[in-house]
Amino acid sequence: MSESVGPDTAPGKPVEPWRSMAVAALIGAAVMAAVDEIVFHQILHWHHFYDRSTTGVGLLSDGLLHTAELLALVAGAFLYADLHRRGTLAPAVARAGFFLGLGVFQLFDGIVDHKLLRLHQIRYGLDVTPYDWVWNLVGLVLLLTGSALAAHAVRRQAGPDS
To answer: What pTM does this model have?
Structure first.
């Protein structure tokens, strides 16, 4: 079964695995940013993107995060559609890229934003250690899932004789 799909797929048309992975990773990072913002910023009110100032600045930072995530999601959708239309999408590699994007965003947020830059914490007024562990372990599981899917896609692309 061919790895490329699309309406104008020609026999022997090369897929673009690295582009497929990068585009899907962009979408994955945007989706994880949206989940973070919707669940933890808006529904639970646990934090804002930037909590080291006034509530107004925190809300502004959430709006800027939302703008960035939405632009990334729209751009990723157009780039994905272009890959599909041209018949150069590598679906298995794109699935891996999606999970890699989810995991990279989660770990970046947990390590860089929470701990190194201290832009915000997951919660306030209690010991955040268990939250930090869960946050980063979820990111690590997503990253490892993406890595395993990528390795499987590469092995599958190489064929049974490799």
So the answer is: 0.87
Count the Cβ atoms, other than its own, within 10 Å of residue 50.
Answer: 18
Q: Which tens digits make up the pLDDT trace of 60-97?
A: 999 999 999 999 999 999 999 999 999 999 999 999 99
Q: Would you state the structure tokens that stand for residue 158, as one six-digit string?
A: 């190489």
How many other C-beta atoms can be found within 10 angstroms of the C-beta atom of residue 128?
Answer: 15
16 touches 83 (CB < 8 A): yes
Single out the residue of 44, 48, 43, 46 nearest to residue 62, CA to CA.
Answer: 48
Q: How many CA atoms lie within 13 A of 14 on its CB side?
A: 4
Give long-range contacts, CB 8 A cutoff, 24+ apart: 40-45: 40/122, 41/65
Phi and psi based region of residue 5 (left: phi greater than 0; alpha: psi -120 to 50; beta: remaining): beta
Q: 89 near 22, Cβ under 8 Å? A: no
Distance CA 48, CA 55 (A): 8
Tokens 């929470």 appear where? Answer: 114
